[in-house]
Amino acid sequence: MRELGRRRFVNPVVDLGTLINAPRGYARFVADLRRYRKLGGTAPAGELYPQLHDRLPTSAFDQHYFYQDIWAARQIAAFAPERHVDVGSRVDLVGFLTAVTHVTFVDIRPLPAELEDFESIAGSVLAMPFEDGSVRSLSCLHVAEHIGLGRYGDDLDPQGTRKAAAELARVLAPGGQLLFSGPVGTPRTCFNAHRIHAPHDIVEMFGDLTLLEFGGIDDDGRYAVPRALEDLAGADYACGLYRFTRS
User: Fold this and answer.
1) With the C-alpha atoms ordered 215, 216, 221, 223, is the resulting torsion angle positive or negative?
2) Long-range contacts made by residues 191-194, C-beta under 8 angstroms, separation at least 24?
3) Which pLDDT tens digit goes with each residue over 147-184?
4) Can you tell me the distance from the alpha carbon of 59 to that of 53, in angstroms, rounded to the nearest whole number?
5) Cβ partners under 8 Å of residue 167, min gap 6
6) Is the model's pTM score more than 0.90?
7) What is the pLDDT of residues 184-238, one digit of tens each?
8) Buried b (16+ CB within 10 A) or exposed e, 99-136
């Protein structure tokens, strides 16, 4: 555990795994460069651009974000709203969703992209620029666990996740759909990266809403929808996928 703690503290500045594997990667790069030139390939010294860490047996992907984005896109496409509001989720996802509907993206760091059926609004999940019960289709994916930890320049607040949940519930329209996700398992705060909540605690945060469906990605990267809340209760760092409505 101490070694894991040291890695977490150092990796934001120096990724230890990358550093350890670099000599082997450079040796392979030089050998490939020599072979390429012998084959008649042009590779000027001033244009060399070593890529050392992509020779993998399978395509690398983040299970949380990969599966949650697919889940969310399918749910939104099936719901077929005239407009969808997303708060702080991955910018790739909100861009892809413009193929389905008009997207309004709310974030404290606006996205300066010019795109058809897309608008970006500077705003916080703690004070969204919408009237009570006015948003029919809403998502906030792998975001609320960060609120109040200062990681993205927001104010410090130990109740940040709960306050974000209350604000999302406030703006959701009757009959509307809220897609919400975040780390679930053994509750704890990993300052200043994220919080991890018990699956049932997140349902309690949205006490005014009705849970329509729960799914998620477990510690082994297995994606399943639906799941029972208890399936991920003892996880280390699973991802819970929640679909709520306001009755």
Assistant:
1) positive
2) 191/149, 192/149, 192/150, 192/151, 193/146, 193/149, 193/151, 194/145, 194/146, 194/149
3) 999 999 999 999 999 999 999 999 999 999 999 999 99
4) 12
5) 125, 126, 127, 128
6) yes
7) 999 999 999 999 999 999 999 999 999 999 999 999 999 999 999 999 999 999 9
8) ebbebbbbbeeebeeeeeebebeebbbbebebeeeebb
DSSP-derived 3-state class of residue 200: helix
The DSSP symbol for 107 reads E
Report how far residue 32's alpha carbon sits from residue 119's, in angstroms, rounded to the nearest whole number.
46
Which of the four pLDDT bands, split at 50, 70 and 90, describes residue 2? low
- Contacts of residue 163, defined as CB under 8 A and 6 or more positions apart, other chains included, come to 126, 147, 148, 157
Q: Which residues contact 69 (CB under 8 A, 6 or more apart)?
A: 90, 92, 93, 96, 141
Eight-class DSSP state of 178: E
Contact 73, 100 (CB under 8 A): yes
In this prediction, residue 9 has a pLDDT band, given cuts at 50, 70 and 90, of confident
